[in-house]
Design brief:
Length: 260
């Protein structure tokens, strides 16, 4: 019998998370074992945007080092997981069956929004994985609808993983901070947890008007949009259970959720 996986949202932090001694790294390193082994993985990463939902169809995706100014050892890391072109094809059909346009990309590999958490969760790099792109101008409601179109993947043993950040304001980070986050970051993080626990999709979609500190927490909301894909893929009425809560670099929330 195929295991029915929850959908998951994780905050992937900076690329340096791989080697940092912080609670979020320890959490992600144990998450794969807690969930078990999916048949395939579909990642909605904050670091891939296109005009319409696009899926990677590469059989051997490269490891994309889409960041600058970090230590040399990060650029030597590789996550050689096999691709999942079959999964991508099924997902395209699911979107098209609901009237959503979808496309494929036969060149793109895995960006750091995908391989950083996957390297910690499934270090063996032996589970087929692919990505779905975001459409930032279309906002949260669109990404919730995309996720809902993909809900059937859970019954196929697929892990739908949203990878972004619960708060993401690079101008307000403090790389040496060890203290409590700023009030705006904590207030937004708490509001997000409350609304997810309540399954309040309407409030979440309208978060920029309703959430405290929304403009500071997400000056541009590409790092929160993967959450809506994961929430939608859990099905109508899904609620979120917080699996992890911590902050790194001052105001970067590393919150993670599962949806059932």
């Amino acid at each position: 019998m195929t295991a029915r996986f929850p959908t998951v949202f994780v905050s992937h932090g900076a690329p340096t998370l791989i080697g940092e001694e912080v609670p979020a790294r320890d959490f992600l390193a144990g998450l794969g074992g807690a969930f078990g082994r999916p048949k395939e993985i579909l990642v909605a990463s904050a670091h891939w945007e296109t005009a319409k939902p696009t899926f990677g169809t590469v059989e051997k995706p490269e490891t994309i080092h889409d960041f600058y100014g970090f230590p040399d050892e990060l650029y030597r890391l590789r996550y050689p997981a096999p691709g999942a072109p079959g999964l991508a094809g099924r997902a395209i059909e699911m979107l098209q069956s609901t009237g959503l346009a979808a496309s494929r990309d036969d060149q793109r590999g895995l960006d750091h929004g995908a391989w950083v958490p996957l390297m910690l969760m499934y270090p063996g790099a032996d589970i087929p994985a692919t990505q779905i792109s975001l459409q930032h101008p279309l906002g949260p409601a669109h990404h919730l609808a995309v996720g809902r179109a993909l809900a059937g993947l859970r019954d196929e043993g697929v892990l739908v993983l949203g990878s972004g950040s619960a708060t993401h304001n690079l101008s307000r980070l403090d790389w040496g901070a060890n203290g409590a986050p700023a009030a705006w970051a904590k207030d937004f993080d708490d509001w997000l947890d409350e609304r997810l626990a309540a399954g309040d999709a309407d409030a979440l979609v309208d978060y920029r008007a309703r959430a405290p500190g929304a403009a500071l927490a997400h000056p541009r909301d590409e790092h929160l949009l993967p959450l809506f894909v994961a929430l939608g893929a859990a099905g109508e009425g899904a609620r979120g259970k917080r699996l992890h809560a911590s902050f790194t670099h001052g105001n970067l929330s590393m919150a993670a959720y599962r949806f059932d």
